[in-house]
Amino acid sequence: MTSKSPLPPRRLLAVAAALALFGGPAAAGTAPAPAEPGTAGASSCPLGAFRCPPRPANFAMCRPNALLEFYDPALSRDSSQRDTANTKVDAVHVDSSDQSIYKLNGNVRIERADQLLRADRVDYNDQTTDYDAQGNVRYQEAGQLLSADRMRGNTDASHGIADNVRYQMLEARGNGVARRGEMLDAQRSHYTQVTYSTCDVGHHLWEVRAKDLKTDKTTGVGTARSATMRFANVPFLYLPYFTFPIDDRRKSGFLFPTIGSSNRSGMMLGVPYYLNLAPNYDATLEPRLYTQRGTLLAGEFRYLFPGTRGQLNLEYLPNDRGNSDDTVESTKGRDRWLLKYTDSTALAPGWSFGTNINRTSDRNYLRDFGNDLYTSAIGTLASNAYVYGSGNWWSASFGVDSYQNVDPYLPDTVVQYKRWPRATFNMDVPLAHWLEFGLDSEAVAFRKDDVIEGKRADLSPYLAADFRGAAWFVKPKLAYRYTAYQLDPNYQRFDYRSVLATGATSPFDRRSPSRSLPIASIDSGLIFDRSTSLFGSQYTQTLEPRLYYLYVPYRNQNNLPLFDTSLMSFDYWQLFSPNQFSGADRQMNANNLTAALTTRLLDDSGVERLSASFGQIRYFTPQKVQLPNCWNGKQSVACPATDWSGSDYVAQLGVQLSDRWRLNSSYQWSPNTRQTDLGAVELQRRIGADGILNFSYRYRRTPGAELPLLEQYDASVVYPVSERWRLLGRWTYSVKDKRTVEALAGVEYDSCCVAVRVVGRHYVRSFNGNTNQVGTNNAVMLELEFKGLGSLNGQTEDLLRRGILGYQ
Fold it and tell me: How many other β-carbons are positioned within 10 Å of the β-carbon of residue 332?
């Protein structure tokens, strides 16, 4: 017999909520379905992306039936209807002879909205709100599943006790068991002999076990005693007492330790401790032990206030015990430190302050304590502090730039000038819809020991017009550039005048040199398009011829110092640049005409599938403005004037006809020397859902040099052997140096709740060009990730994402 009898909705809801000992009812809203294979995976990363974001924890390999056996997929997942939904009660027998006690027996089923309670027997006292559910008790809601042998308690007091509990979270993975669970009140719970894991139910590759666990929702803190963490049922971490957060609130406590090794500092062990000082600022302290150098203390402080945010990092190691015999600077016995500070502050509407300070105690610091190749390869640390302002038509800045040499094999003379201070002001005022007036300006003081110092002002007002139609554009521009110097009184001590083409030198004869000249250009182009088909697909093909004329009269600039100027690498975009030099110390002379042609293939959605460009500059007068010295591949020589009639031919090609592969290539050929100045090919191919293959070849030769500046092969792969296994590899080889720059090989295992990576690396950590000495290092890294909990020694992820294009 089946009887249906309505119960007080509020009271019954309280019964169901009391049974949810492990977190209470789900928040209002539609909860997601339990995770099943194929529903989670790596976030998309476009082909050719320099660095892909880390992929989220992927539980796609978990079993689709890894749910507690009483899960009902037909139950509503909308918890927002609880207050208004009717309560449905099914039972074989209902006894309400006692006016205050309801007794339900035989396949009891109580359902409302997303809540479902099932048991063999349920007694409920309407007067005292006592309840007692016995025999195969099962509770389901949008956020979780829970079962027990028996549950009893009082809903008004928010008290309940459950025996032999099994639970599973549905919104966030997690499941486990407890011998006994007690809800002390609406905010506090107490469990004994409890476990937790994000692995499949009944197949825990890892889990946390605790003899005693308490949670407090008011503080957001859980407390565990006699806890062990197990992997493959083998305990590897024991904590007699620890606390942990049970919600999104931050909490003080230990973080995962870090472990590393290098042949310069030995084995390293770091144990970070997080300090939740306030809602808007916190800190982390990490003592590290280096077996060859001593004990280092690292600290991080973060803050966030209205209108300002920043971060301070400090590292300090007293009395270094290690050696630095292969470098020009010894650090043994010295105190060593690292400082990093960033800050961004809003000062007023349109005005802000930003700073980024990086300093070390010595030039060996990053080599000795850097965690990866990229940190240890840094040669200069930059620091700056600026005030920024902007409006509708203007922008300005004022601040300083400083640099520190952190290359142990090079002298401090290689470091660029400090800009102390530096101010900029730029504006762009529209005079009409086709005409604008602008100004680019900079004033800077250059500081550096034992060389010429001084101040420089650079002003460049301009008028620019923009005439265009649907298939054409013409953009003339007229500018005037004035650059003036004020050198320090000791300028006559230094012979900084350029080396002339004849090789003769002359001392400088003025303290306040200057340069002024007009710059005129006109940029024009046409755009044609048509419909076409290729390999059975329809595309829109464009044909875009472009002409760019530039005129800059010659000014002798041999008497101007070189503070921050260098010759930029020639590429396709240099065909349309008004200056081949970076910085303001040199302005090229020009009477040039650039001709270029571009064609593209666009699919129906507007995605560019193919792009090919070709162009060259024709010189009508020689380029006389040069730097003092040029590198010919062996030594520094005087730079002659360029009297070629044309620049390199420049070609670019980019192809992505499908989402599986992409090809990029660049080529520059000199008609004057009949040599290749640049060649680059990059190929990327997706393999399966999460595999990638990269191959690149790079060749660059300085114009006029006999030997190439760079010639390298680079290949990398992420090869999915199966759903769970991936092979990783990278190889970079320098043809010029005839040696391997970096070799990397590894294997990655991914399962439902555990990921393991083992990576071995051989890489060049330093190169002393004077002695042709190469320093190499070998390293093996192991990372064990417990999905949903964290990772042990999580350093390989960043290395692989940087080193393998497209890795996730």
Answer: 12
Query: Each residue of 281-290: pLDDT tens digit?
Result: 999 999 999 9
In the chain, CATH 2.60.450.10 sits at 9-34+46-251
User: How is 570-616 classified by DSSP, letter by letter?
Assistant: P-GGGGG-S-SEESSS----EEEEEEEEEEEEE-TT--EEEEEEEEE
Q: What is the distance, to the nearest Å, from the Cα of residue 319 to the centroid of all Cα atoms in its chain? A: 35
Residue 197 to residue 174: CA distance in whole angstroms: 5
Distance (Å, whole) CA 292 – CA 392: 57
Q: Are 210 and 223 in contact (CB under 8 A)?
A: no
What DSSP element (H or E) covers 180?
strand 175-183
Run of H or E residues at 803: helix 796-803
Q: What is the mean pLDDT of residues 225-244?
A: 84
Question: CA dihedral in degrees (88, 94, 96, 97; nearest 10)?
Answer: 160
pLDDT tens for each residue of 610-619 = 999 999 999 9
The residues, any chain, with a CB within 8 Å of residue 105's CB and separated by 6 or more, are 91, 92, 93, 94, 95, 120, 121
Q: Are strands 710-720 and 725-734 parallel, antiparallel or unpaired?
A: antiparallel
> What is the rounded CA–CA span in Å between residue 167 and residue 174?
8
pLDDT at 245: 66
Q: How many angstroms separate the CA atoms of 45 and 682, rounded?
A: 17
Give the E-state strand segments of 607-660 in sequence order.
608-619, 629-631, 636-638, 649-655
Tell me if 343 sits within 8 A of 353, measured CB to CB.
Answer: yes
Mean pLDDT to the nearest integer, 63-70:
73
Average pLDDT on 169-197 reads: 82
- Taking phi over 0 as left and psi of -120 to 50 as alpha, with beta for the rest, 264 belongs to alpha
Look up residue 154 and give its two tokens.
């009082």
C-beta separation of 89 from 5 below 8 A: yes
CATH number of 9-34+46-251: 2.60.450.10
Type of residue found at 736 = K
Q: What whole-number distance in Å separates Cα of residue 147 and Cα of residue 162? A: 9
pLDDT of the residue at 29: 32
pLDDT bucket at 683, cuts 50 / 70 / 90: very high
